[in-house]
Amino acid sequence: MTGSDLVQLDTQTAIAELARRHKAAGGVGMQVLNMIGGRAENLLERLPDPVKTGLEGATERALMVALHTAKQSRGLVPDQKGWLNTAVTTAMGAVGGAGGLPTALAELPVTTTVLLRTVQGIATEYDFDPNDPDVLADCLTVFASAGPLEADDGANTAFFSTRVTLTGAAVHGILKSVSPRLATVLGQKLAAQTVPILGAAAGAATNYAFTSYYQEMAHVHFGLRRLAIESGQSETLLVEDLKRTLKTL
Fold first, then answer.
1. CB 84 within 8 A of CB 90
2. Measured CA angle at 161 (ends 10, 32), to 5 deg
3. Burial track 58-75 (b if 16+ CB lie within 10 A, e otherwise)
4. Within 13 A of 61's CA, how many CA atoms are on the CB side?
């Protein structure tokens, strides 16, 4: 569903469609957890202490690389279809998982870059310009959601209402705010990729889950933005409508 599709729907129907996307976002992630066994919060315990300690810094650096690379690549490589982005990251996850933790860590900034480009591409579907600093801030804010390996009851919707203006001086600040949440999420991904025997399969599965998840959350995020503009309703009220609708699904 794109921005033009939303315009053709009444507000409640559009909210229901966005709620279904939100609900479906984590489904694949739960299947991944079932495959590798255990719970998401236990995955981080599998990582060596030095990796856990440096995870937030590594995530912030990965976001910085992604931010720079995604910006540079937009003039060279067009936005791709969602299925192709998913296929690319799935393959990268398999390669990263095949070599254990060292290759999984090396793959981290590459996957983060593709995810950011994917989110930017979805922003354009809703007629937002990802080169606009405010829209770029929205793209980064998508990474502040719970992640595909967390059971989501619909309560984690605060990031939909977050508005951050991204200027040169504010880049570091927004990365600092997003990195802790994303570090936890990416730590779970790294841990899954180091599962003995299942490394390559777990890497492919987690990357598939992550790409699917952030694509859906980007649709919800920018769908709400576009719906607020087209309907003239407060974005805060639309988020509250989304929360109520999620409870009924």
1. no
2. 90
3. bbbbbbbbbbebbeeebe
4. 9
Q: Which token pair is 139?
A: 């793209």
Q: What is the SS3 assignment for 156?
A: coil
Matching residue, tokens 């994303």: 182
CA dihedral 16, 18, 21, 25 (to 10 degrees): -120
34 burial (CB, 10 Å; 0-12 / 13-18 / 19+) is exposed
pLDDT along the chain (249 residues), means of 10: 61 90 79 68 82 89 85 66 71 76 86 88 91 84 79 58 57 79 85 77 83 90 90 87 87
Task: Give the per-residue pLDDT at 153.
Answer: 53
The structure tokens listed for 112 are 């983060």
| Lookup result for tokens 């440096």 | 54
CB-CB contact of 195 with 202 (8 Å): yes
Buried b (16+ CB within 10 A) or exposed e, 137-173: bbbbbbbbbbbbbbebebebbebbeeebebeeeebee
Query: What pLDDT was estimated at residue 96?
Result: 75
Closest of 116, 28, 17, 134 to residue 72, by C-alpha:
116
Residue 229 CA, distance from chain mean position: 23
User: How far is 80 from 204, CA to CA, in rounded Å?
Assistant: 19
